[in-house]
Amino acid sequence: MEQFLERAALFRGQVFPAQSALYERLASHGQSPSALMISCADSRVVPELITQANPGDLFVCRNAGNIVPPFSQANGGVSSAVEYAVMALGVRDIVVCGHSDCGAMKAFSNPAALEKMPNVAAWLRHAHAAHSVVCNAYHGLDEHGKTRALSLENVVVQINHLRTHPSVASAIAQGKLTLHGWFFEIETGQIQAYNGDTGQFEQVYEGQPLPVAQRPAKRMVAADHLGIAAE
């Protein structure tokens, strides 16, 4: 731990002074991040570094496999983070970020490795829909290809899970929230974004429109039937 303590000392002595006004403002006025990022806990994936976010810019929730369990009344850290980010912080964007060489997704190819990790195995059941898609819709892939396909499909599955959360469903229907699916290439630093209109991941280029998974769109599907004027 000595190296981390040394770096913490360097931060306090060399980095913090240049940003002291920012931290003072955050401490006195609170946080108002514009986005929630749900990413994998993999040590190689650092959301704040990838996005070059400043303190206070990004609300981050990390876990094995960038999982978002479907909504239930059972309390959980990811569900609580989503609810708090949308309802208390008013974030306008949620990003589910997967990545290459994901150990959580590799585990599906080697279930024996999880025999002594029952909690991890139970957690990864939330990605079984993606695993089923890859097993039944993809053919002729080697192990590397399967892991990559599973990692990409898993992002889509977790976005679908996000839509089951009442806070998310309501914010989307009010036109206040956009959902994003990203895939980070560790080896190249590139990001691909899921395009909900085409159903494909697309390379992100600087200065080009960002593909999104779910655009904010006000809707009241029952308005015409109930004689209600949509706002």
From TrEMBL:
Reactions catalysed: hydrogencarbonate + H(+) = CO2 + H2O
Domain of life: Bacteria
Cofactor detail note: Binds 1 zinc ion per subunit.
UniProt keyword terms in alphabetical order: Lyase, Metal-binding, Zinc
Alphabetized GO MF terms: carbonate dehydratase activity; zinc ion binding
GO biological process: carbon utilization
Cofactor(s) the record lists: Zn(2+)
InterPro entries named in the record: Beta_CA_cladeB, Carbonic_anhydrase, Carbonic_anhydrase_CS, Carbonic_anhydrase_sf
Catalytic activity, EC: 4.2.1.1
Gene3D superfamilies according to UniProt: Carbonic anhydrase
Binding site for Zn(2+): 40, 42, 99, 102
PROSITE patterns: PROK_CO2_ANHYDRASE_1 (PS00704), PROK_CO2_ANHYDRASE_2 (PS00705)
SMART domains, A to Z: Pro_CA (SM00947)
Pfam families, per the entry: Pro_CA
Similarity annotation: Belongs to the beta-class carbonic anhydrase family.
Function recorded in the entry: Reversible hydration of carbon dioxide.
Protein name: Carbonic anhydrase
